[in-house]
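Form 12-C: Joint structure prediction
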Amino acid sequence: MNSLFEFFSFSDPNIRFVVIGSVLLTASSAIVGSFTFLNKKSLVGDAIAHAVLPGICLGFMLSGTKNPVFLIGGAFITGWISLVLVEYITSKTRIKEDTAIGLILSVFFGIGILLLTVIQKSGNAAQSGLDHFLFGKAASLVGDDLYTFAAVAIALLIAVFLFFKEFTLLAFDKDYARAIGLPVKRIELILTSLIVLAVVIGIQAVGVVLMAAILITPAAAARFWTDRVRIMILLASVFGAISGLAGAYISYTAPQMPTGPWIVIVISMIAFVSFFFAPRRGVVSRLLRQYTIRRTINDENILKALYQLGEENKNFFIQRYPDEIIRKRKFEKDNLLKVLKRLRAQGYVESSGNLWGLTEEGKTRGQRVVKIHRLWEMYLTTQLHIAPDHVHEDADTIEHLLTPELEAELERLLDYPKQDPHRSEIPYK
Amino acid sequence: MEKEISLVPALEVHDVTVAFDRKPVLWNIDLTLPQGKLVGIIGPNGAGKSTLIKAVMGLLPLSSGYVKLFDKPIDDVRKRISYVPQRESVDWDFPASVLDIVLMGRYGKLGLFKRPRKADIDVAMDCLRKVGMESFVNRQISQLSGGQQQRTFLARALAQQADIYFMDEPFAGVDAATEKAIINLLRSMTDQKKTVIVVHHDLQSVPQYFDYVIMLNTRLVAYGPTESVFTQENLTGTYGGKLTLLTDVGDLIRREGFPNREAK
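Section 2 - Result
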């Protein structure tokens, strides 16, 4: 608890550095990654992330220092080479993109690990900490390195801001962008460079292996909450920042812990929550919607049965025993009573003892369902020429679904027919 | 001055061959279209209708020949060209509103870095009104019906205020009333000397809709004013019988890895 307070007071300049650093890295990766996600190129981020490792090692071997400029430079070059190769393989051979990515990813990563092992065995004292690139370490983000990484992160943000409109159009409709004369090749080049840069600095925080997760997961999580690109990207950056902050904190309290996996766990939890609980797109919301639909169907079927019974007696307000309703249409008795009580609470039915009957409102609603059912049967038989004995099941679903506008259109289209194909009267108000 | 400009053909296609994976799908197309016409491209499935307009717009590489618009290479007149792609060519689950999409039509005029201004939104709204979509401005595009998506694309093309429009099956998935509204709109555009080129499927409406018709079946069967070209004979040439030999040779070229043209 003490450490929590100490950490979030940000009084220690080291902590400030680490926090600013990891938040910038994860947020900028999330923003750039949003476009990878929108372009449906999620795997590409993974390929780049693995392909930068040999570049980092080569940068170190050639310069002999961990100077970030050399490491970023090396990483940038091999990251780019990997993408060029993926594209070359995909366009010149029969190998599909996913296979090409898999090939390139493993070859480059293999070479990277090889070089890393060579460096570690070489006894060069400066090499300690290079292995942080594998799993990331937020706590190592201090001093001059941080300035370099922060500068790159801010440059990324500015570039995305400037090219926002072009990146969005390219993600939605590339052919159109080309047709109206946008320099598509150059814009793609810029976006790809941004992705490579985001990966190069992002691996400081999460490492090579898990980099793809912080590129893609924030955007995927954000997509659940909104239908607007701007808000989606903003949310993605906030999700990224939260996970970066969490990673920095864990790195601070438990230095032996790898930061990257923790950042990824946090962002995955956010994605998990979004997946289940986001309004409209989330799983829970969908289940709730289905539950409401099932309830409506149940309610309306009972009102319909009561209405049809009323048609037989030419009196819609007679109260009946539940068994009589079940004879008209099959319901489970317990369920029927439950729904009847609900309908009573809503004012659609009345009861005295075990006798149940429609109210005026209940009659109106039941009548509407019956009317739509019979109109739809008419529509199917007269307009679509479907056999009259095949239309009943269809109409059973449509009767609960149709909006008043469609209902009106259906009436107009059929010109208010008096009877349905089975010679039942169609009730209008 | 006005007259002089309209003498320049809107489109000139010279000996154009287009190949996918080496296999030619369009052979040696030659045609010239005047300005201010409503032009239909017809032909069976796989005849290369979409391929032709994509090649003309420079979206596909040409194996041979050249294309000129208003007597200039395409890249010099990009701002005067508008394109309505096939509706299925994009993912409609993209996080954007109808207005976002129509504003894309302004991007060519805006240039890099600039954001759409109030005036661009005015144009976009105006175009949405023309296609009867003004009440859907803020609708998320995944919630549109097929016909509404099509009209959104049309509004986006209109927002470009171009001189020549290429439309890939703009009537696909559109109900009869909307189709009529769209054709009236296209008609009013050609009245203003705009050229509209439409990939079309329904042969029955061809004489009624189009001034010019291009009849295609991997090679050009005929093109010209509808009344003189849209004949039974040309229809048979376009739709009747597969050109088996031509297709076989195309397959052979791909199998053998042959170049389409001998190296110069």
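Section 3 - Comments
Residues 282-429 of chain A form a domain with the Arc Repressor Mutant, subunit A fold (CATH 1.10.10.10). Chain A touches chain B at residues 38, 40, 162-163, 165-166, 168-169, 171-173, 175-182, 223, 226-229, 232 (CB under 8 Å).
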